Amino acid sequence: MTVSERRLRPLVPSVLALVPALILLAGCEPAGTTPALTEAPVQADIPFPEDWRFSADAEPVTAPEGMVSTTDYYATRVGLDVLEDGGTAMDAAIAVSFALAVVNPAAGNIGGGGFMVTRLADGETSALDYREKAPAAAHRDMYLDEDGELTDRSILGHLASGVPGTVMGMWDAHQRYGTLPWEELVQPAVGLAEGLEVRERLARSLRNSQRSLSIYESTREVFLPGGEPPEVGETFRQPDLARTLTRIRDQGPDGFYRGETADLIVAEMERGGGIITHADLADYETAWREPVTFTYRGYTITSMPPSSSGGATMALMAHMLEEHDLEAMGWHSTDMIHLMVETWKRAYADRNQVLADPDYVDIPLQEMVSREYARTRGADIVQERATPSDDIGPGLEVGEATETTHYSIVDRHGNAVAVTTTINSGYGNKVTVAGAGFLLNNEMDDFAAKPGFPNQFGLVQGEQNAIEPGKRMLSAMSPTVVADPDDELFFVTGTPGGSTIITTTFQTIMNVVDFGMNVSQSVNAPRVHHQHLPDQIYFENAGLRSEVVEALEARGHTLQERGGTSGDVQAIMILPDGTRAAHSDPRLGGTAMGH
Asked: Measuring CA to CA, how many Å separate 500 from each of 200, 269, 468?
């Protein structure tokens, strides 16, 4: 990005203005190397299951210059306003993050944390870790009762919260990449907090979570005014949050980690038995890290390193799968699903035991992402039968390791940003900071609160990820950017979904690289998941054909059909002529817009 591209211009006045007419709105070479696309991807001839609810014929949103895809209309509109006014993808990402804290309180946040992966137009990549940290008073056994059994204190209530990282993350991203003034990027969120017209997505989320939002008075007062969630078309006002965002706008991170907001957080902790202190807040720092970069069939994939497990786990999956011709097997055939699951079992077994905060433990990262290790790790996979998870231990040794939201942005210069941010469960620990108007996270549950026992997502993790003061808990969040074999920007993707994030993100990549799907098909396609333990394949309702289910069971697999959906992908593809094509996952009803 050149200096001339870093133009400082004011934002358009209102993020709630009507969308201009030009906006399009919608919702040794490895085996099997795929060449770069020479023409725009068309709808691949992929037979989605007959009863599958999402179409293989959906048209992407296309635009010649910039594109924003998020889970919420207002947040997408905020990001697009920034791009239209000359801001970069990084500027838009900051504005979107704060907007999501207002319009998507179940996951968008200033009380949580996240990861950002960037790829500049010149090919430079970076990874920003603004994951929450354990407070200084945290200790290994803090969630065990007198009998050594796990309690729910890592999930519900004040003690479940790690030190939030989002505000400092956005500040540090702005210090490194920002071109528009900080104040102008935070202001749209202030305006939304002062009052917004409720749309269906927010109304549905609040309605479905009414019981849990009633547990704490401070949360009930904000999100259930008059005892009921706001309905579609009503004006929803969050004055305490507006004042908090105003302090962040005017004071930067000091408006959150010090002063009045910090006082309110600490007072809330003291009121509810939490342990975050003024010192914890003042000492919080982000970490710029080297991304995990690997190739898959000639495409270069850039994703998050630890404290995310996403990049390393996807690299191991990819290198095991690269030894096989998936296209010849057929999309979602019995052989393909079996092979994917067998690689996932092995990758998650390693993920769960060796990955953690690299500032606290030694991680065999280079070995885990190497092709040599993948060949060894996948050597015992056979097509005829499933390998029981109990027979698959971690293949690496260590030295002395559901509620989230993702957004993807590409600007006119070719800069790309992928961000996944979270407060963990839907509406976090259910505690709103009284007087500050925002929910706190329950990320402490992402530690191995009792190593060897499952967390709320069923992940059974090891000693590497045990609780320590100041440590970042392991995450599955996997914001990812893909370059084609000519090293041109090709695909930006990511999703929420707890432990399913890694497999969902990688399936979107497989769909476009192995099977030639366009961006809409790659997002709409049904998803499957396996995470080593429990030893079962999860698949979305009506997402696998009955004959495939029966054949997998005959090979020894246990399958479970999910009642709901998996993930909420926001993806952007760059077509050979430079057109941006995007699709926002219809599972939760997001929005993609371009100009």
From this structure: 25, 31, 25
Q: Which amino acid is at 374?
A: A
Q: What percent of the chain has pLDDT over 90?
A: 87
Q: At what angle do helices 310-321 and 334-354 cross, to 10 degrees?
A: 140
- Going from N- to C-terminal start, the domains of the chain cover 65-116+124-288+409-465, 289-402+477-594
Residues in the chain: 595
In contact, 198 and 235? CB cutoff 8 Å: yes
Could you report the per-residue pLDDT of 413-432, keeping only the tens digit for each?
999 999 999 999 999 999 99
Contact 103, 202 (CB under 8 A): yes
Whether a cis peptide bond, with omega within 30° of 0, leads into 49 is: no
DSSP string, 483-518: E-TTS-EEEEE----GGGHHHHHHHHHHHHHTT---
* 51 token code pair: 């009863």
pLDDT classification of 41: cutoffs 50, 70, 90: low
Q: How would residue 87 be classed by pLDDT, with cut points 50, 70 and 90?
A: very high
Amino acid at 402: T
Check 404, 480, 500, 591 and give the catalytic one: 404
DSSP of 394-421: -SS------EEEEEEEE-TTS-EEEEEE
Fold entry, domain 289-402+477-594:
Glutamine Phosphoribosylpyrophosphate, subunit 1, domain 1 (3.60.20)
79 touches 96 (CB < 8 A):
yes
The per-residue pLDDT for 398 is 55
Mean pLDDT over each residue of the chain, to the nearest integer: 92
Is 219 noted as a catalytic residue in this protein? no
Its pTM stands at 0.92
d(CA 169, CA 149): 35
